[in-house]
Amino acid sequence: MINKLLVKDVLSIVDGCNHDGQVLPVSIIKTCFSDLQEMAIEMYEGRSGRKSLSPDDEKRFFMAYNASRIHLFNHVTSLKPNDSADHLAVIYEKIIEARNNLSLCNSRLVHYCLNKFFKGYPDSMQKVEYHFGDAFDGLLNAIKKFDYARGFKFSTYATRAITHTLIKVADTKKDASLDELSANGFDVSSCKTTDECFSGGDLRIDVISDLIECDFIDSELSLSDMDRAILKFHIDTKNNLTNAMIGQMYGISRETVRLKKIECLKKIESLIERKLAKK
Protein backbone atom coordinates (compact mmCIF):
# COMPACT_ATOMS: atom_id res chain seq x y z
CA MET A 1 0.00 0.00 0.00
CA ILE A 2 1.10 3.59 -0.64
CA ASN A 3 2.66 5.39 2.32
CA LYS A 4 0.44 8.49 2.34
CA LEU A 5 2.68 10.40 4.75
CA LEU A 6 5.72 9.86 2.55
CA VAL A 7 3.80 10.86 -0.58
CA LYS A 8 2.64 14.03 1.19
CA ASP A 9 6.27 14.94 2.02
CA VAL A 10 7.30 14.18 -1.55
CA LEU A 11 4.59 16.39 -3.02
CA SER A 12 5.65 19.16 -0.66
CA ILE A 13 9.26 19.08 -1.87
CA VAL A 14 8.30 18.99 -5.57
CA ASP A 15 5.90 21.92 -5.14
CA GLY A 16 7.27 24.98 -6.93
CA CYS A 17 9.57 23.17 -9.35
CA ASN A 18 9.58 24.09 -13.02
CA HIS A 19 8.03 21.05 -14.73
CA ASP A 20 9.04 22.47 -18.11
CA GLY A 21 12.69 22.55 -17.05
CA GLN A 22 15.38 20.36 -18.52
CA VAL A 23 15.14 16.70 -17.46
CA LEU A 24 18.68 15.49 -16.83
CA PRO A 25 19.83 11.86 -16.70
CA VAL A 26 20.05 10.48 -13.16
CA SER A 27 23.82 9.97 -13.55
CA ILE A 28 24.37 13.69 -14.21
CA ILE A 29 22.13 14.64 -11.28
CA LYS A 30 24.16 12.40 -8.98
CA THR A 31 27.41 13.99 -10.18
CA CYS A 32 26.03 17.50 -9.64
CA PHE A 33 24.80 16.62 -6.17
CA SER A 34 28.19 15.14 -5.29
CA ASP A 35 29.96 18.32 -6.48
CA LEU A 36 27.43 20.46 -4.61
CA GLN A 37 28.03 18.61 -1.35
CA GLU A 38 31.79 18.97 -1.68
CA MET A 39 31.52 22.68 -2.46
CA ALA A 40 29.08 23.28 0.41
CA ILE A 41 31.51 21.70 2.88
CA GLU A 42 34.43 23.72 1.49
CA MET A 43 32.49 26.99 1.71
CA TYR A 44 31.27 26.19 5.22
CA GLU A 45 34.81 25.42 6.41
CA GLY A 46 36.24 28.42 4.53
CA ARG A 47 38.55 26.30 2.37
CA SER A 48 37.16 27.39 -1.01
CA GLY A 49 38.00 31.07 -0.63
CA ARG A 50 34.65 32.14 -2.12
CA LYS A 51 31.58 33.59 -0.51
CA SER A 52 29.06 32.39 -3.09
CA LEU A 53 28.59 30.02 -6.00
CA SER A 54 29.78 31.06 -9.44
CA PRO A 55 27.00 31.77 -12.00
CA ASP A 56 27.84 28.55 -13.85
CA ASP A 57 27.82 26.40 -10.71
CA GLU A 58 24.64 28.05 -9.51
CA LYS A 59 22.84 27.28 -12.77
CA ARG A 60 24.21 23.72 -12.88
CA PHE A 61 23.22 22.87 -9.32
CA PHE A 62 19.75 24.40 -9.51
CA MET A 63 19.17 22.69 -12.85
CA ALA A 64 20.03 19.34 -11.24
CA TYR A 65 17.91 20.14 -8.18
CA ASN A 66 14.91 20.98 -10.35
CA ALA A 67 15.42 17.92 -12.58
CA SER A 68 15.57 15.64 -9.53
CA ARG A 69 12.20 16.93 -8.37
CA ILE A 70 10.71 16.37 -11.82
CA HIS A 71 11.92 12.75 -11.68
CA LEU A 72 10.43 12.36 -8.20
CA PHE A 73 7.12 13.87 -9.29
CA ASN A 74 6.94 11.52 -12.26
CA HIS A 75 7.55 8.56 -9.93
CA VAL A 76 4.74 9.67 -7.62
CA THR A 77 2.20 10.29 -10.36
CA SER A 78 2.88 6.86 -11.88
CA LEU A 79 2.08 5.03 -8.63
CA LYS A 80 -0.98 2.79 -8.49
CA PRO A 81 -3.14 2.30 -5.35
CA ASN A 82 -1.48 -0.98 -4.38
CA ASP A 83 2.10 0.06 -5.22
CA SER A 84 4.74 0.59 -2.57
CA ALA A 85 6.23 4.06 -2.27
CA ASP A 86 9.15 3.05 -0.06
CA HIS A 87 11.66 3.42 -2.91
CA LEU A 88 10.78 7.12 -3.07
CA ALA A 89 12.27 7.66 0.38
CA VAL A 90 15.84 7.30 -0.95
CA ILE A 91 15.23 9.84 -3.74
CA TYR A 92 13.46 12.18 -1.30
CA GLU A 93 16.40 12.09 1.13
CA LYS A 94 18.87 12.91 -1.64
CA ILE A 95 16.78 15.90 -2.73
CA ILE A 96 16.50 17.17 0.86
CA GLU A 97 20.27 16.78 1.22
CA ALA A 98 20.80 18.79 -1.98
CA ARG A 99 18.42 21.50 -0.73
CA ASN A 100 20.34 21.72 2.55
CA ASN A 101 23.64 21.98 0.69
CA LEU A 102 22.25 24.78 -1.48
CA SER A 103 21.16 26.60 1.68
CA LEU A 104 24.63 26.12 3.17
CA CYS A 105 26.22 27.67 0.08
CA ASN A 106 23.89 30.69 0.38
CA SER A 107 23.71 31.04 4.17
CA ARG A 108 25.49 34.43 4.02
CA LEU A 109 22.29 35.85 2.51
CA VAL A 110 20.45 35.09 5.75
CA HIS A 111 22.91 37.16 7.79
CA TYR A 112 22.92 39.93 5.18
CA CYS A 113 19.10 40.23 5.13
CA LEU A 114 18.78 40.06 8.92
CA ASN A 115 21.39 42.76 9.51
CA LYS A 116 19.87 45.00 6.85
CA PHE A 117 16.28 44.47 8.03
CA PHE A 118 16.96 45.20 11.72
CA LYS A 119 19.54 47.94 11.16
CA GLY A 120 18.70 50.91 13.37
CA TYR A 121 16.82 48.91 16.01
CA PRO A 122 18.10 49.52 19.56
CA ASP A 123 18.16 45.77 20.20
CA SER A 124 19.17 44.76 16.67
CA MET A 125 21.59 42.00 17.72
CA GLN A 126 18.92 40.25 19.80
CA LYS A 127 16.39 40.56 16.98
CA VAL A 128 18.86 39.14 14.45
CA GLU A 129 19.50 36.15 16.69
CA TYR A 130 15.80 35.67 17.51
CA HIS A 131 14.65 35.78 13.87
CA PHE A 132 17.48 33.72 12.37
CA GLY A 133 15.19 30.68 12.04
CA ASP A 134 12.51 32.74 10.28
CA ALA A 135 15.05 34.14 7.81
CA PHE A 136 16.47 30.67 7.16
CA ASP A 137 12.94 29.42 6.41
CA GLY A 138 12.72 32.22 3.86
CA LEU A 139 15.94 30.98 2.26
CA LEU A 140 14.64 27.40 2.06
CA ASN A 141 11.42 28.64 0.48
CA ALA A 142 13.45 30.64 -2.06
CA ILE A 143 15.41 27.51 -2.99
CA LYS A 144 12.14 25.65 -3.40
CA LYS A 145 10.56 28.28 -5.67
CA PHE A 146 13.59 29.55 -7.61
CA ASP A 147 13.42 29.03 -11.38
CA TYR A 148 16.95 29.07 -12.84
CA ALA A 149 15.52 29.18 -16.39
CA ARG A 150 14.38 32.80 -15.99
CA GLY A 151 17.95 34.03 -15.92
CA PHE A 152 17.85 35.79 -12.54
CA LYS A 153 20.60 35.50 -9.96
CA PHE A 154 19.54 33.41 -6.99
CA SER A 155 20.90 35.98 -4.53
CA THR A 156 18.50 38.62 -5.93
CA TYR A 157 15.51 36.31 -5.68
CA ALA A 158 16.47 34.95 -2.24
CA THR A 159 17.09 38.40 -0.74
CA ARG A 160 13.54 39.45 -1.61
CA ALA A 161 12.10 36.15 -0.36
CA ILE A 162 13.91 36.36 2.99
CA THR A 163 12.97 40.03 3.46
CA HIS A 164 9.33 39.24 2.64
CA THR A 165 9.37 36.45 5.24
CA LEU A 166 10.76 38.82 7.87
CA ILE A 167 8.06 41.40 7.06
CA LYS A 168 5.33 38.77 7.44
CA VAL A 169 6.77 37.54 10.74
CA ALA A 170 7.09 41.11 12.00
CA ASP A 171 3.44 41.74 11.07
CA THR A 172 2.15 38.69 12.95
CA LYS A 173 4.13 39.56 16.06
CA LYS A 174 2.88 43.13 16.28
CA ASP A 175 0.39 43.94 19.01
CA ALA A 176 -1.60 46.91 17.77
CA SER A 177 -3.55 48.12 20.79
CA LEU A 178 -6.23 50.79 20.96
CA ASP A 179 -3.84 53.01 22.91
CA GLU A 180 -1.34 52.81 20.05
CA LEU A 181 -4.07 53.66 17.54
CA SER A 182 -5.08 56.63 19.66
CA ALA A 183 -1.48 57.84 19.78
CA ASN A 184 -1.35 57.70 15.99
CA GLY A 185 -4.33 59.83 15.08
CA PHE A 186 -7.44 57.74 15.91
CA ASP A 187 -9.95 59.34 18.24
CA VAL A 188 -11.02 56.22 20.13
CA SER A 189 -11.81 57.99 23.42
CA SER A 190 -13.96 60.89 22.26
CA CYS A 191 -16.76 59.99 24.73
CA LYS A 192 -18.65 62.90 26.20
CA THR A 193 -20.78 63.01 29.32
CA THR A 194 -24.06 62.25 27.61
CA ASP A 195 -25.29 58.68 27.11
CA GLU A 196 -25.56 59.21 23.36
CA CYS A 197 -21.95 60.28 22.94
CA PHE A 198 -20.74 57.51 25.23
CA SER A 199 -22.61 54.99 23.12
CA GLY A 200 -21.13 56.44 19.97
CA GLY A 201 -17.63 56.20 21.44
CA ASP A 202 -18.21 52.59 22.41
CA LEU A 203 -19.31 51.73 18.89
CA ARG A 204 -16.28 53.50 17.47
CA ILE A 205 -13.98 51.42 19.63
CA ASP A 206 -15.80 48.26 18.55
CA VAL A 207 -15.35 49.11 14.86
CA ILE A 208 -11.64 49.83 15.28
CA SER A 209 -11.17 46.67 17.35
CA ASP A 210 -12.84 44.65 14.59
CA LEU A 211 -10.52 46.16 11.98
CA ILE A 212 -7.45 45.29 14.05
CA GLU A 213 -8.75 41.78 14.66
CA CYS A 214 -9.26 41.11 10.94
CA ASP A 215 -5.81 42.53 10.08
CA PHE A 216 -7.41 45.52 8.26
CA ILE A 217 -8.90 43.18 5.67
CA ASP A 218 -12.27 44.65 4.71
CA SER A 219 -13.89 44.72 1.27
CA GLU A 220 -14.94 48.35 1.81
CA LEU A 221 -11.38 49.44 2.60
CA SER A 222 -9.78 48.07 -0.58
CA LEU A 223 -6.27 48.11 0.89
CA SER A 224 -3.47 46.29 -0.90
CA ASP A 225 -1.10 43.96 0.98
CA MET A 226 1.52 46.70 0.88
CA ASP A 227 -0.94 49.29 2.24
CA ARG A 228 -1.93 47.03 5.13
CA ALA A 229 1.70 46.27 5.98
CA ILE A 230 2.62 49.97 5.94
CA LEU A 231 -0.42 50.80 8.06
CA LYS A 232 0.49 48.18 10.66
CA PHE A 233 4.05 49.51 10.79
CA HIS A 234 2.57 52.97 11.39
CA ILE A 235 0.24 52.10 14.28
CA ASP A 236 2.80 50.06 16.20
CA THR A 237 4.73 52.46 18.43
CA LYS A 238 7.16 49.64 19.30
CA ASN A 239 8.34 49.77 15.70
CA ASN A 240 11.32 52.01 15.04
CA LEU A 241 11.27 51.79 11.25
CA THR A 242 11.39 55.13 9.46
CA ASN A 243 9.48 55.87 6.26
CA ALA A 244 12.74 55.55 4.36
CA MET A 245 13.42 52.09 5.84
CA ILE A 246 9.88 50.90 5.06
CA GLY A 247 10.19 52.30 1.55
CA GLN A 248 13.43 50.38 1.07
CA MET A 249 11.60 47.10 1.76
CA TYR A 250 9.06 47.76 -0.99
CA GLY A 251 11.20 49.68 -3.46
CA ILE A 252 9.32 52.98 -3.04
CA SER A 253 10.33 56.42 -1.79
CA ARG A 254 9.79 57.59 1.79
CA GLU A 255 7.40 60.26 0.48
CA THR A 256 5.27 57.54 -1.14
CA VAL A 257 5.19 55.70 2.20
CA ARG A 258 4.06 58.90 3.95
CA LEU A 259 1.30 59.49 1.40
CA LYS A 260 0.16 55.87 1.65
CA LYS A 261 -0.15 56.21 5.43
CA ILE A 262 -2.33 59.31 5.06
CA GLU A 263 -4.47 57.62 2.40
CA CYS A 264 -4.95 54.50 4.56
CA LEU A 265 -5.93 56.53 7.61
CA LYS A 266 -8.45 58.52 5.58
CA LYS A 267 -10.00 55.31 4.24
CA ILE A 268 -10.32 53.89 7.75
CA GLU A 269 -11.83 57.09 9.13
CA SER A 270 -14.35 57.10 6.26
CA LEU A 271 -15.20 53.43 6.85
CA ILE A 272 -15.71 54.03 10.58
CA GLU A 273 -18.10 56.91 9.87
CA ARG A 274 -20.09 54.80 7.41
CA LYS A 275 -20.35 51.91 9.85
CA LEU A 276 -21.40 54.20 12.70
CA ALA A 277 -24.06 55.78 10.46
CA LYS A 278 -25.63 52.35 9.95
CA LYS A 279 -25.93 51.68 13.70
How would you characterize the overall build of this protein?
The protein has 279 residues and is mostly helical. The protein has three domains: 1-105; 108-173, no CATH class; 178-278, no CATH class. 68% of the residues lie in helices and 0% in strands.
In short:
The protein is mostly helical. It has helices at 4-14, 26-45, 55-77, 88-105, 108-117, 124-130, 132-145, 154-172, 178-183, 195-213, 225-235, 243-250, 254-278. Helix 1 (4-14) packs antiparallel against helix 3 (55-77), helix 2 (26-45) packs parallel to helix 4 (88-105) and helix 7 packs across helix 8 (154-172).
Can you tell me the overall shape?
globular
Count of folded domains:
3
What low-confidence regions span 5 or more consecutive residues with pLDDT below 50? 173-181, 186-201
Overall pLDDT metric: 77
Radius of gyration: 25 Å
Strand residues, percent: under 5%
Class inferred from helices and paired strands:
mainly alpha
Q: Give the N-terminus to C-terminus distance in angstroms.
A: 59 Å
Q: Based on DSSP secondary structure assignment, what is the total number of beta strands? A: 0
Give me the secondary-structure topology.
Elements: H1 4-14, H2 26-45, H3 55-77, H4 88-105, H5 108-117, H6 124-130, H7 132-145, H8 154-172, H9 178-183, H10 195-213, H11 225-235, H12 243-250, H13 254-278
Helix pairs in contact: 1-3, 1-4, 2-3, 2-4, 3-4, 4-7, 5-7, 5-8, 7-8, 11-13, 12-13
Key structural traits:
279 residues, mainly alpha, 3 domains, 13 helices, 68% helix
